[in-house]
Design goal:
- There is one protein chain.
- This protein is of the alpha+beta class.
- Helix 1 crosses helix 3.
- The model has no long low-confidence stretch (mean pLDDT 79).
- Helix content is 24%, strand content 32%.
- The strands form six sheets. The protein has a four-stranded mixed sheet. A three-stranded mixed sheet has the order 3-7-6. Strands 1-2 form a two-stranded antiparallel sheet.
């Protein structure tokens, strides 16, 4: 009877999902965990979430039109599933949560992370043994800090309870500045929503005269931009469409904001100071 109740419950849930076009589309794209936990929005937070609210008794009555189709023959209980469904099911422990660190470049391009999970499993002899399974996380371009990836029932099995879920939470880690792993200074990037902010170091002479900016991107391109204007400490250039990909529309990107860090000379001798004063004395100043 318990197997029958469980089977009717599964049938009812499957029918409920497949008969709803929106829920079916979510299931096809994100699987059962996406349907259950919700899917990430543009801010990286999960939206929605599905819980099946019917029970096997209701499904049985809806299918047969009665709680016991054999009652007129003098067989069975008046409500064949009621006593079984009123019994508490196995406990569901709290999920096991792990932080999953990704660099900004990995979140920009997408990447694959692998995690070796060792968990308790009941073997054929009825003994709990350690079992190792590799969990693969496909990080999508544009995911944000806080995005969750759920692996249902991949935790430790134990008597009287179902195995808990394992949840990975995306965390952003910085590139090590000035290291061999960062030859193009991509550590100068920070994220601002769907935009990227790049701090460009520029000499004082280039800031006051024509120069060409060579900006490395997170996908290993170089963007060349002419900068004929005077660059002040608060000046900012916007490059449309060179920011972070949108997780739901990876072909669409935010903007790249270039901010400047002007490098001043450590020392100027008397002759250079005099010439600078003469050159700049009558120039119109910015507010």
């Amino acid at each position: 009877m318990e197997d029958a109740a469980k089977k009717f419950q599964e049938i009812g849930e499957a029918y409920d999902v497949l008969s709803d076009l929106q829920m079916r589309a979510i299931y096809d794209q994100y699987g059962y965990e996406g349907l259950r936990d919700g899917v990430p929005n543009q801010n990286g937070a999960n939206e929605g979430g599905y819980r099946y609210k019917q029970n096997a008794q209701e499904i049985f009555e809806g299918f047969f039109g009665t709680s016991n189709p054999f009652a007129s023959f003098g067989f069975g209980e008046a409500q064949p599933f009621a006593s079984k469904l009123n019994r508490p099911g196995p406990l569901k422990p709290e999920p096991v949560v792990h932080n999953l660190e990704c660099t900004l470049a990995e979140l920009y391009n997408g990447c694959v992370k692998k995690y070796g999970a060792t968990r308790k499993r009941l073997n054929a002899e009825g003994i709990y043994v350690d079992e190792t399974k590799q969990l693969v996380i496909n990080v999508k371009p544009g995911w944000k800090k806080g995005t969750k990836v759920t692996f249902p029932c991949e935790g430790d099995e134990a008597p009287g309870q179902t195995a808990p879920d394992i949840i990975f939470v995306i965390q952003e880690k910085p590139e090590p500045a000035g290291s061999a792993k960062d030859p193009n200074n991509i550590s100068q990037y920070v994220r601002d929503g769907n935009n990227l902010v790049y701090t460009y170091k520029i000499s004082l002479s280039d800031a006051l005269t024509d120069c060409s900016l060579q900006i490395p991107t997170l996908d290993k391109r170089i963007i060349s931009i002419a900068c004929p204007e005077v660059v002040s400490p608060f000046y900012e250039k916007t490059i449309p469409g060179e920011g972070m990909p949108l997780s739901k529309k990876p072909d669409t990107k935010g903007d790249l904001l270039v901010r400047f860090h002007i490098l001043f000379p450590k020392y100027l001798n008397g002759t250079k100071r005099t010439k600078l004063k003469e050159l700049l004395a009558n120039e119109e100043l910015q507010n």
